[in-house]
Design a protein that fits this description.
Largest sheet: 7 strands, mixed
CATH topology of the largest domain: Phosphatase 2c, domain 1
Number of strands: 24
CATH architecture of the largest domain: 4-Layer Sandwich
Number of helices: 17
Number of domains: 5
CATH superfamily of the largest domain: PPM-type phosphatase domain
Strand content: 15-25%
Distance between the termini: 116 Å
Radius of gyration: 44 Å
């Protein structure tokens, strides 16, 4: 029995020995797969990325006590890159590397992990007794506990012998897990830190200069855009970029663990809010891009909710939303910049370029954080570079705004100086004239004094006559007031009749998609009028500017309206050029201008639109339907909005009636045929609008009118009318109206 026991014990021993040999061979094979970093006398810097092996601990269960067990040791994977980037991951990652020091001095080296926003880093090394010791790093510990007080993680490593030493690093973080491991000597590390701090110092200095510059401008101009911009610069540079670079934790809140962990994502949302407030004020989106204006306000509300949510949701969730939010913000602000630039806001050009740079930098940074792009080269600092270029271009945009303000101010000052000099000249001339007149008046007064004495008696006699005349004047004054009231009532009634004779908007809208008219008589009655007729399948529109205004213009208007009705509705003449010719002959005949030399007449913009059996307003399902428009003008143009541009079609230079009788021929007026389609707009006007003056005696001008028509042409007609009236009244300010104003707008 004892022999059996001995035999069994021998068998057990042999099996155990074989397992031990197999384990040692297997473990030595695994270990042989990893190369050690070799330090010699000339080693100053080693990139350790390709010398690391790593494994993912999805359940965060592995400890240093069981990481070297065969089942775990065999799970390590080799690295083929010098940089590690695992994106946003909830897993813990273990890294293993080996170092062999072939020097005799065994100097101290430092391992740098160059991505500050990592939560928890544990570094494991063996002491002289072969027992694993750990040191903890990361932004979950106060900054002052680091062995080297630097923004990146610096882990001191010093060999005591020339054997290969093995080290482990375990990292967990709620943000992006990315870093480049590099081993530096003390001397090389000092040079590396100095160069790095100089470069980032230039970046901070640029942001500080832009902040102080625009803050000074805000206090000078009191423009809220500059204040929003300064707040955006401050929050983004300190809260976001300084947190990514590690300087915020190093210098501002070294002992505030929770705040250091959460500040970056909170700053992302807050900076987005102020960047959008700046955009709304700087680009005037409410006027130039209403749809983008609404989108931005909606996104401001979302970012405000996101800011509050950062205090309650996990950091890993908040940072994911924050980085994606930056992409959405960049695209939204690019859309707003392009929209306002196309609407005529020149300052939007610099704005769009600025946010394009920011967008490129942010999208690269987000792709790096999500392990879509490699974490190397300029890609590491893409958002810092993009934001710096953005700040420069936005400052250029704001400076351009100041330049425009300065030019306008200098122009106003020059006008004031010229006015002052002119006043001085006038005062000097008046003083000289006054002195000479005083001398003359003194002599005259001496002569008059004698005359006054003699006239005094006559005055006493005249006094009785004056009293009698005053009674007569008071009686006549009452009579004149009664007559004036009657005339005023008559003119007011004539105005009512005039407006009643104008085409009904309801009638026009039966045959047009949309319509408006601006009709502002200078006096109670007007010499301008608009005319409309539908005969068969033809629509006629006319804007007529008669000579004069008030009562004389009203009589000319009555003649013109009557003649147009007779020519088109009764005589059924449909060619615009022929209508103007007959209108001219009718005015000459009715006013007997060949006999009396009378020069009154009118300027006319006349349009005929040929439609099918259906009217324009009935072609809602025919969006590509085209119509033939025939135009003839007597010194008045036609404006057409189509294909996102305004075209001015000039009329002939021949007046209807008046002084050009000897030059009138059958070919004085000409038809111009244009093809239009559903949705196009046409505008007919008198010259009262473009000739309207402002207090500086500047005219509203034809170019200004065309620019405004292009700006507002896509709006509904009632809004076009409102915007155009607002622009006119803003331009005129307190200047009295000089002429009748007439403008018709018809959407095909």
């Amino acid at each position: 029995m004892n022999n059996n026991i001995i035999k069994n014990s021998h068998k057990t021993y042999n099996i155990s020995l074989l397992l031990l040999v197999f384990f040692l061979l297997n473990f030595s094979t695994i270990s042989a797969q990893q190369k050690a970093a070799v330090i010699d006398e000339n080693t100053e810097e080693i990139s350790l990325g390709r010398l690391f092996v790593y494994q993912e601990d999805k359940k965060s269960e592995l400890t240093i006590d069981n990481i070297e067990k065969p089942v775990n040791a065999s799970s390590f994977l080799p690295s083929d890159k010098k940089d590690f980037n695992f994106g946003f991951t909830p897993s813990a990652y273990w890294f293993k590397f080996q170092i062999k020091d072939n020097t005799t001095l065994h100097k101290q080296y430092f391992l740098e992990l160059d991505y500050p926003p990592m939560d928890k880093i544990e570094f494991f090394s063996k002491d002289e007794a072969g027992i694993w010791k750990s040191r903890s790093f990361g932004d979950f510990r106060p900054f002052g506990e680091r062995p080297v007080l630097y923004k990146n993680y610096l882990i001191p490593i010093q060999h005591k012998n020339s054997e290969v030493q093995t080290y482990y690093i375990r990292i967990t973080t709620g943000g992006s897990l990315q870093f480049t491991p590099t081993l530096y000597s003390s001397e090389k590390l000092s040079a590396h830190i100095a160069l790095s701090e100089i470069l980032i110092g230039i970046w901070y200095g640029g942001f500080l200069v832009m902040f102080l510059y625009n803050l000074f401008i805000y206090f000078t101009l009191k423009d809220i855009s500059y204040l929003y911009y300064c707040i955006f610069i401050a929050i983004y540079s300190i809260g976001v970029q300084a947190s990514i670079q590690g300087h915020a934790f190093q210098y501002l809140w070294s002992n505030s663990i929770w705040w250091a962990s959460e500040v970056m994502v909170i700053a992302i949302f807050v900076s987005m809010v102020f960047s959008m407030l700046f955009t709304l004020n700087f680009l005037y989106t409410k006027k130039f891009a209403p749809f983008a204006h609404k989108l931005i306000w909606g996104y401001i509300a979302l970012c405000s909710i996101g800011t509050i949510a950062c205090f309650f949701i996990p950091y890993s969730v908040a940072i994911s939303f924050g980085t994606m939010g930056l992409l959405v913000l960049s695209m939204l602000l690019l859309y707003a910049g392009i929209s306002t630039y196309r609407a005529g806001n020149r300052a939007a050009l610099f704005f769009t370029v600025a946010w394009s740079c920011f967008f490129v930098g942010v999208i690269i940074q987000v792709f790096v954080a999500r392990n879509i792009l490699p974490n190397e080269g300029l890609m590491k600092v893409s958002s810092a570079i993009g934001s710096f270029i953005e700040v420069i271009f936005l400052s250029i945009a704001l400076a351009d705004k100041i330049r425009i303000f300065r030019v306008e101010k200098e122009k106003a000052q020059a006008e004031v100086v010229a006015s002052v000099k002119e006043n001085e000249r006038i005062i000097l001339e008046q003083n000289q004239n006054l002195e000479s007149k005083v001398q003359e008046r003194t002599q005259e007064l001496q002569q008059k004094q004698e005359e006054i004495m003699s006239q005094n008696e006559e005055l006493q006699q005249n006094q009785e006559e004056i009293l009698a005349q005053r009674e007569f004047i008071e009686t006549k004054n009452k009579e004149l007031m009664e007559v004036n009231d009657q005339v005023g009532q008559s003119i007011q009634y004539a105005s009512t009749i005039q407006r009643a004779l104008l085409p009904s908007s309801v009638e026009i809208l039966k045959h047009a998609t949309d319509y408006f008219n601006i009709y502002l008589p200078k006096n109670v009655v007007s010499g301008d009028f608009y005319w409309y007729a539908k005969v068969d399948n033809q629509l006629f529109f006319a804007a007529v500017d008669c000579t004069g205004h008030g009562v004389p213009g009203a009589f000319m208007r009555m003649i013109g309206n009557t003649l147009l009705n007779e020519i088109v509705k009764e005589a059924r003449v449909f060619s615009p050029e022929r209508i103007l010719t007959l209108l001219h002959e009718g005015v000459v005949k009715d006013l007997r201008q060949t006999e009396t030399g009378n020069t009154d007449g009118m300027d006319v913009c006349l349009v005929r639109i040929d439609v099918d059996s259906n009217d324009i307003a009935d072609t809602e399902n025919q969006q590509n339907k085209t119509f033939q428009l025939t135009f003839a003008g007597a010194k008045r143009p036609l404006y057409i909005y189509q294909n996102n541009q305004i075209t001015e079609i000039r009329g002939d230079r021949m007046h209807v009636g008046g002084t050009q009788l000897s030059h009138q021929t059958e070919s004085s007026y000409h038809n111009q045929v244009i093809t239009v389609q559903k949705g196009d707009c046409i505008y007919l006007s008198s010259d009262g609008l473009v000739d309207s003056p402002n207090p500086k005696r500047e005219k509203f001008s034809n170019d200004r009118l065309k620019t405004l028509l292009l700006t507002y042409a896509k709006e509904p007609m009632h809004l076009q009318k409102k915007f155009l009236l607002d622009e006119l009244f803003s331009f005129q300010k307190s200047t009295p109206q000089r002429d009748d104003v007439l403008l018709m707008g018809i959407r095909i």
